[in-house]
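Archive maintenance. Older records in this collection stored only the sequence; we are now back-filling the structure field for every entry so that each record is complete. The fields below show one back-filled record exactly as it appears after the update. Entries are processed alphabetically, and CBS domain-containing protein is next in the queue.

ARCHIVE ENTRY
Title: CBS domain-containing protein
Organism field: Actinopolymorpha cephalotaxi
Length field: 229
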Amino acid sequence: MTVHVGDRIVLAHEPDRAHRRHGTVREVLGTPESPEYRVVWDDGHESFIYPGPEAIVLPAGTGETEDTAGPGDTADLEDAARVPRARSGRGENAVPVGRHDPVERIMRSPVRTVDAASTLRSAAELLAEADVGALVVNRNGVPAGILSERDIVRAVAGGGDPDEVWSADVVGVDADDIVWARPSDPILQVAELMRRHHVRHVPLRARARPGAVGIVSARDVLDVLYDDR
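Back-filled structure field:
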């Protein structure tokens, strides 16, 4: 099915219409063989989605209604990207997030990164400015590891000069050991990844998109698991 800018997309992850997500296509990307759409959702969030069976596309001007929002033609969230953080059931208009929902609903995006040659002081300032617990360390635009608050504290406590030590020198998780997930993976599955690999931060990457499109922490996951008891 051909999708155009202005078409409406309805994601039907749940049979209950109240949990369906409605949005508008703002940009058509990719190739005919591997299309991708930038969608602005009615809740103000934005993401990139790929064709799939979990949604229908309604041509612009067709008069979308709840009755037309059933499983359909295109656009799953298998490799969504750049979705702003959505807290579990918080805020007047927040939609509750469950353990089986895609982790994209709670990920932080865009991902905060630091260059491998940046000093620990620079990395610490980035962490404080962004109010996050970890940064993806990039070398020539490619993820080289994950640097956490704990890594910086240990390096400084061990005598490292924050103005002389590079971020890449103290990454707690290097490139070969990064545990990745996809934006469409269930939150509970990501929690199991963290438990199995003993990590506190999991970056998310999309098919055919280099680098991380989001990141989720153990605290993010625990908030959902606790609220969804």
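Update note: Residues 65-93 have pLDDT under 50 and may be disordered. The chain has two domains: 8-81, 113-227.
Entry marked complete.
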